[in-house]
Amino acid sequence: MNHPSPTVDVHAHLLLPEAEALVDGLPGLAEARALDARRNGPAALAVNGPMVRDRLPKLTDTGARLAAMDAQGVDVQLVSPSPSHYHYWTDEDTAEKLYRLVNEATAAHCSAAPDRLRGLGLVPLQHPRQAVRALDHALAQGLAGVEISSHAPGRELSDPAYEPFWSRAEDTRALLFLHPFGCTLDERLDRWYLSNTVGQPAENAVALSHLIFSGVLDRHPGLKVIAAHGGGYLPTHIGRSDHAWSARADARAGCAHPPSSYLRRLYFDSLVHDPYVLRELVRVAGADRVLLGSDFPFDMGTEDPVGALRAARLPEADFHAVRGGNAAALLRKD
Fold first, then answer.
1. In terms of Cα–Cα distance, which of 202, 255, 253 is closest to 230?
2. Exposed, middle or buried: residue 269 (CB in 10 Å: 0-12, 13-18, 19+)?
3. Cβ–Cβ < 8 Å for 130, 91
4. Helix, strand, or coil here: 281?
5. Residue 146: in which H helix or E strand, if any?
6. Closest Cα partner for 85 from 55, 107, 106?
7. What are phi and psi of 216, to 5 degrees?
8. Where do the Amidohydrolase-related domain residues begin and end (predicted)?
9. Stretch 21-30: mean pLDDT, rounded?
10. Which DSSP state fits 120?
11. What spatial distance separates the first Cα and last Cα of the chain, rounded to whole Å?
């Protein structure tokens, strides 16, 4: 059987030193870094620095990226800025400068290999009034959409202030890559890298629950949201959400259908680090809603995303859909 679809990795990152230079020394940066340090703890920070330095060529140089993709058997990457560039603490003026710089720099990085690299920009979720403008700017650069975190300071994704953003994203068919950065459980997760191993999937589950239970996905059924890390804990524990929706009036007050039904309106990357969890994700979301993801090139990713997918022993058609068919259709690569 012929499978012409390219192998597409939808979870790959780009580091932009010029973005960090833009915010360097600004009021608020030191406080944000202190919060990040408290959340991660000293042991994690001691590992993170060398880990990122070792991967700088793959994070910044297009040639190194393409060589690594060749080694992995990946044809196309959807490149998103490192979530460390969100900087949701910045004021409106700085936030606009930042999203413009990041969007333009990401587009420039991908333009070196336009057949193999597609990009995502950023929007300042801390300033909802800027979100539509930032999305439009990203799309004007030729980017496929934008990357967002699981929340902004004082605002969940269910906040009504984001309604214009969801409407614009739906109308433009922009991709929204939901990738948390930082967990509000704070110092409870400051040892053993729990800030990532527990924090990231917890934040994914909370953010997706806000989109589901608030009715955002009812009001905007055409949204194209891709959840990183397989959607975190939510897909494998969605039965508890369904039970609450059935048993309690307060739980079902905001959304029209059982929560599990919305999983088939979302997309999920395959980065769950367990073939049985990946099989369950495909079962509950549908083989047409799961996309290959590696978290390139960080240490919490996988260096062999296709091998990790193959380990799930999916039916052949499902394997190829996840390997690249689904993402190729989203990116209009077919």
1. 202
2. buried
3. no
4. helix
5. strand 145-148
6. 106
7. -55, -40
8. 8-332
9. 95
10. E
11. 17
Amino acid symbol at 202: A
- Read off the pTM: 0.97
Residues in CB range of 173: below 8 A, 6 or more apart: 222, 224
182: left (phi over 0), alpha (psi -120 to 50) or beta: left
Rounded Cα distance between 295 and 279, Å, is 19
Give residue for tokens 């193999």: 116
Bridge-based pairing state of the strands 151-152 and 155-156: antiparallel
- Side-chain half-sphere exposure of 171, counting CA atoms within 13 A: 9
Structure tokens at 147: 């990357």
Spatial distance between the Cα atoms of 287 and 126, rounded to a whole number of angstroms: 34
Helix (H) or strand (E) holding 21: helix 17-23
pLDDT of residue 216: 98
The confidence band for 4, taking pLDDT boundaries of 50, 70 and 90, is: confident
pLDDT score, position 334:
35
In order of start, what are the domains of the chain with their CATH numbers?
8-330 (3.20.20.140)
Q: Tell whether the model's pLDDT for residue 15 goes beyond 70.
A: yes
Type of residue at 70: D
